[in-house]
Write a structure and sequence with these properties.
Blueprint: E1 3-12, E2 40-45, E3 49-55, E4 64-73, H1 77-83, H2 103-109, E5 138-141, E6 155-158
Antiparallel strand pairs: 1-4, 1-6, 2-3, 3-4, 5-6
The chain binds a DNA duplex (12 and 12 nucleotides) through strand 2, strand 3 and helix 2.
DNA sequence: TGAATGATGTTT
DNA sequence: AACATCATTCAT
């Protein structure tokens, strides 16, 4: 059982956002984006990484939020194992951010598989998403790693957190 | 700075 | 059937 608190996300809009997978309509890959909200959209990036999105808008709309980073909380042994990192010694937090900062690292730490695409958060997937009541200060900036739509400040992050890319 | 790596969408 | 693209990471 590993988990954490979200620290960095990016929004991908249903309309007027050329960087969004939904921009050119529904396909087999982005089908989940057009499904009911509260489900996950998982896809392969650069042939290597499993990226996790949360479908946010109503059915057939086509929007999602990319989970870019989270702050590990509680037992991190599973996250470490998934990432191929030796158990981090308590106190020596030098490279803790390598565990879960960056969308590819998030996917690997959580042990995502393409098979989870379209599943509901919760018992179905074994992956839970909930509001723990934290209300950190939030900063905005442009999104990372996209060619088009780079002018829109749709990246949101906990501005006082160390766990941001 | 560039290699790795494969699913997906687009073009032939 | 073939090619270009890619919401990235890691090693050099």
């Amino acid at each position: 059982m590993g988990g954490g608190r979200l620290t960095e996300v990016e929004a991908y809009l249903p309309i007027g956002d050329p960087a969004s997978h939904s921009f050119r309509g529904e396909t087999r890959r982005n089908r989940s984006m057009f499904g009911p909200p509260g489900r996950m959209y998982v896809y392969v990036s650069y042939g290597i990484h499993m990226l996790l999105n949360v479908v946010c808008d109503a059915e057939s709309v086509g929007s999602a939020v990319l989970i870019r980073s989270f702050e590990p909380l509680g037992d991190v042994s599973m996250l470490c194992a998934n990432r191929g990192m030796s158990e981090l010694r308590s106190g020596a937090t030098g490279k803790l951010e390598l565990l879960s900062c960056g969308p590819g690292r998030v996917g690997q730490a959580l042990g995502l598989h393409l098979r989870l695409d379209g599943l509901v958060f919760g018992s179905d997937s074994g992956l839970h998403l909930f509001d723990d009541g934290a209300r950190p200060a939030v900063g905005r900036a442009v999104r990372i790693g996209i060619a088009k739509g780079g002018d829109m400040p749709l990246r949101y992050f906990a501005s006082d957190s160390f766990f941001v890319t």
